[in-house]
Amino acid sequence: MPEQTAAIGSIARAARVIDALAMLPDGAALADLVTHTGFSKTTTFRVLAALQQQNYVFQDPQNRAYRLGSKLAELSRVASLTDLGALAGQSLKRLARLSEDTVFLSVPEGAAAICVAREVGAFPIKTLTLDKGDRRPLGVGAGSLALYCAMDEARAHATCTINQNWLNEYGYNKISLDAERTAFAKRGYALNKGRVIRGMSAVGVPVYATGGELVAALAIGAIDERMTSKRIKSELAPALLEEAGLIAEQLPGISR
Questions:
Q1: Which residues contact 120 (CB under 8 A, 6 or more apart)?
Q2: Per DSSP, what are the bridge partners of residue 66?
Q3: For residue 254, what are the contacts with CB-CB under 8 A and spacing of at least 6?
Q4: Which tens digits make up the pLDDT trace of 133-156?
Q5: How many angstroms separate the CA atoms of 153 and 105, rounded?
Q6: For residue 255, is it within any domain?
Q7: Whether 240 and 171 share a structural domain
Q8: pTM of the entire structure?
Q9: How far apart are the C-alpha atoms of 20 and 104, rounded to whole Å?
């Protein structure tokens, strides 16, 4: 029991130091943290040393200020993606039930798109081009392309520059993606007609938060024979746009 109590006390002290650092994003000296936590200098230093060992905190070598570390940033990112995937879960299920095909939810991260959720429909031939956690350069694949096309021109240009070699691996470049942006602006959805995997096509739409922030993309993938223009226009694209709107209604306060 004493060991358990000590462990709980240690976690509580670490949490208080982390909370204090979160309030001081520009960095904090040891004295600042002593003031904010109410701990002694010795206790504060010992907690900081333990957090540094786990990469939850780091110390600037120049000014000796403490800041939150990369491990916490990674945990925050994973939690955010998990929450978004769970939040959109019912939409993915409805789309998979309606289309009987595979539905993907992707989010932008830097110059990449990450698949954070997937729902497989009942049609016997499955389109499993992406799995949860898979990354693609922005612009490659319907969901990723929807994210790319929804960005402003400056961000899209910067993304192409960063991803030039990565895009080349998939047969894409800025010229081809500019053409896709033009097509997206006309029809309101992104379309991948077998460019990533032959015989597999997909349609995607962006998802915005209520404040207009681009947060994700929904896409439906199927074999080419099922992705007719008529079906996309009359069934799949409208369903995707409707679910994107329903997800958006749940997104206030979520930022990426």
A1: 96, 102, 126, 128
A2: 28, 59
A3: 80, 83, 84, 209, 215
A4: 899 999 999 999 999 999 999 999
A5: 23
A6: no
A7: yes
A8: 0.71
A9: 38
